[in-house]
Amino acid sequence: MRCLIIILSLLTKVSFGQINGLTECFSNQTDQTKCLKFGHLGFETDDLTFKRISKRVDTIVDKADTSLLAYILPTQKRKVPKEFKLFKSSFLEVTKVNGQIQSLQLYGYSKANNLDFYGINLGLTTTDLIKSFGQPTNTRPFIGIKGEIWEYGDKRYSFVVKNDIVVIIKISRTG
Prior knowledge:
This protein is α+β, with helices and mostly antiparallel strands. Helices cover 22% and strands 30% of the residues. It has helices at residues 2-12, 16-28, 47-52, 126-133, and strands at 56-62, 66-72, 91-97, 100-107, 138-142, 147-151, 157-162, 165-172. A hairpin with a 2-residue loop joins strand 7 and strand 8 (165-172).
């Protein structure tokens, strides 16, 4: 059995334990936000930790109760095809309301170093995504980039794919 798990892990590029870890975390936690993380970054991450992962941060929105920050991320060097030029750099978007993180989104075409979501990272294929999370329960157009949003029922995570490549991963505090 252990040999089969190792082979499956190598074939899917995702550790079988990572997906089991998400399912187990959801079933054991009353607060599912503790399960939703990009690597070590989650809803309880402090500003200093976010600043450590990026040499550059851009403030997109800064109102009295809402802020939206974009942290430019170090990524694996990868040639970016023409249709993905919008994603030349990968970044992490942090949305806060009244000082509390409401959502985290990874954007990009190239893998964000050490910031996967249970084995899924930017730049992976929809085949990898389906092997890890199964078919989405709902899909709808993501008009801004001519992509598609993949949603998974009442889960608080979703993915955006463009030309069968994962380009956005979103986790939310609320559904």
